[in-house]
Amino acid sequence: AEELIARRDAVVARVQEHYFAHPPRIERGWRHHLLDTSGMAYLDMVNNVAVVGHSHPRVTAAASRQLGLLNTNSRFSYDGMVTYAERIVELLPEPLDTVFFVNSGSEAVDLALRIVRSVTGRKDTICLAGGYHGWSTATDEISTTLNDNPHSRGTRPPWVHLAPMPNLFRGEHRGADAADRYADAVRSIVAQIPGGPAAFVAEPLSGNAGGVEIPPGYLPQVYESVRAAGGLVVSDEVQVGYGRTGGDFWGFQMHGVVPDVVTMAKAAGNGHPIGFVVTRREIAEQFSSQGSFFSSVGGSPVSSAVGVAVLDVLRDEGLQENAARIGAHLSTRLEALRERHSLIGCIHGRGLYQGVELVRDPETLEPATEEATAICERLRELGVIEHATGDYSNVLKVKPPLCITRDSADFFVDRLDEVLSAGW
Ligand code: PMP
């Protein structure tokens, strides 16, 4: 394991970070487990990419079969891309009926930005302070997680407008009227943009902020005010879509809204690079009238076969229902843990997207950042892969593959209890 890290450091850019100070060498994965080369098995609590589980035989079979038949660029006509697009559209409410295929979340959000700009003829974009939307130049400009870039909020280009993260635990408004106060902040940003905004871009549950739930009533107000000013709304579902929140397939459905543009990636390919954007036909046509769009392997035959297989498994194995069931169980158990361990300030999220926020002081909410790192290291020794996220890297991620069992969920909570009780 150590030798591999030395080789990695010699040839891979160091900014491509790895988990843990001394990472195990992981060469196998199965369902919601990872195996290292010493034979140790770990419960994977952080992998929302492997949504149907690692090495799913149906996904493997679909990819291998298609690789042996055809893999080409999307300018050829083949069934896979059409079938996959039909399957995606079936899962979305009207009028979201037109798909663009790319290869990653960054590409999907980047393309969404191009679409909203070209359709509105504007550039100003409103997004949430603490959101993350990708690494490409445009998506990096709307990404402001302090753990990735502590200077991000002070260095945005003038077209980026940051609205406060509607975080009821740590944000500036926490009371019963918080949703309205946060929506007021967006209304006032909208009013200050001469010519109006091109778009509002946000996740419907804030993933990188730590699984922070957006209060009910906020998004409907924000969507209304942005649309009233002629802007469009983009729901970034890259982390939280695809049934992860349990009650709904898409995160925006929790809020009773329908966005103009949806972006998706990660889980769509279960680790295979797939990203897509869905919008209404009329928006897609307006965008297309301004030039062509081509992603060489976006929607390739292999990507499409993998994408359809992932959707089949989600449906056939009832994984959204499992997310609801195991998610509810985890919430109950984690809340009980919070009552016994003062280090736990809050349990964020729902379904299988939750966050355990660690604080040193329940009054000041001082983030327990170093503690979070040490707890993750100790959990690894006990067989759990954990990692912290959020502006202060003090929120333990709870976003395992959706096939996780109740026993494994209990294993995670019991190990966390053990570490919090015995020290790290
Ligand atoms: N949007 C969100 C909400 C994300 O969490 C991420 C990745 N963490 C992205 C976009 C970018 O996706 P990718 O890493 O596939 O480019």
Automatic annotation (TrEMBL):
It comes from the Bacteria. Belongs to the class-III pyridoxal-phosphate-dependent aminotransferase family. This is Aminotransferase. It comes from Nocardioides guangzhouensis. The chain holds residues 587 to 1010 of 1010 of the full protein.
